[in-house]
Amino acid sequence: MFRILLTLFIVIPILEIYLLIKVGEEIGLFATLVTIVLTAIIGASLVRREGIKTINSLQTRLNNQELPGKELADGAMLLLAGILLVTPGFFTDGVGFILAFPVTRALLRNSLTAILSAHIQRGSHSFYSHTTTTRATDSDTIEGEFKPHQEQSNPEEGQPPAKLP
């Protein structure tokens, strides 16, 4: 997983720079900058509209005491779409729009559901736990003395409780 993320963090910026240069050569610097700003504005409004629909659907499902699995998946994809659409670049905008449009989002969600279901049925999933256990040693022991304390059963009003000897 680390290798995949590392590769993405290296490849995607290089691809974005390449695309920005190529598009800039074809349509000019000003048109490229305007296109980047417009895709961010249009994408943000699309994600906002779809996000409101998803939240309303989620609330309806919860009010009907149904599991909102579809809505949670859509919400996660819309969050990613919003991040990608406000990131300057043509590749990230393309992926962001794919995640933002309801039709393509549904296709992607159904594909991912089928893939995950197949993995679970085959038993080819793994869970990792990164916990550390510490074992008590002699250096962890604290020595001390204990004396029982007699408390007043009913202290008079206004007087502080009895002090320890």
Quick structural gist:
The protein has five helices and no strands. With 165 residues, the protein is an all-alpha fold.
Explain how this protein is built:
- The chain is mainly α and 165 residues long.
- It has a domain at 10-121.
- The chain is built from five helices and no strands.
- α2 runs antiparallel to α3 (69-86), α2 packs parallel to α4 (90-100) and α3 (69-86) runs antiparallel to α4.
- The chain is extended, with a radius of gyration of 29 Å.
- It starts with a helix and ends in a 43-residue tail after the last helix.
- The model has no long low-confidence stretch (mean pLDDT 84).
Share of β-strand residues = under 5%
Sheet/helix structural class: mainly alpha
Q: Segments where pLDDT lies below 50 for 5+ residues? A: none
Please give the count of helices: 5
Largest sheet: none
> Span between N and C termini?
62 Å
Question: Percent range for helical residues?
Answer: 55-70%
Oligomer: single chain
Output mean pLDDT: 84
Shape: extended
**Backbone CA Rg:** 29 Å
Order of helices and strands: HHHHH
Total count of strands: 0
